Amino acid sequence: MRPIALALLAAPFALGACATVPAEVPAGEGSCFAERVNPWIGHVATPQYRADIAKATGAETIRWLYPDSAMTMDYRPDRLNVKLDKNTDVIRSASCG
């Protein structure tokens, strides 16, 4: 009985050492450059502004999100999230992810 109890006590520590640490993305690499959206914050997201934002940020993927939008929660540093007002399409904020 005693060896089993010792094994059970040691197991969490042994398994904890096996955990992997996610790789960090080097600065500037894979970034969506969300700060480049600042000139458009407070403006209506017209098709032209959407194209301008895509060009200015160079983001591989852009999500145009409303407060009640369904979205995945996985973090992707190359993806730009642009949050819009539900009623007016005014750009409220931008972030990577």
Automatic annotation (TrEMBL):
Coiled coil: none annotated. It comes from the Bacteria. Keywords: Signal. Residues 1-19 form the signal peptide. Gene3D superfamilies: Trypsin Inhibitor V, subunit A. This is Peptidase inhibitor I78 family protein. It comes from Tsuneonella dongtanensis.
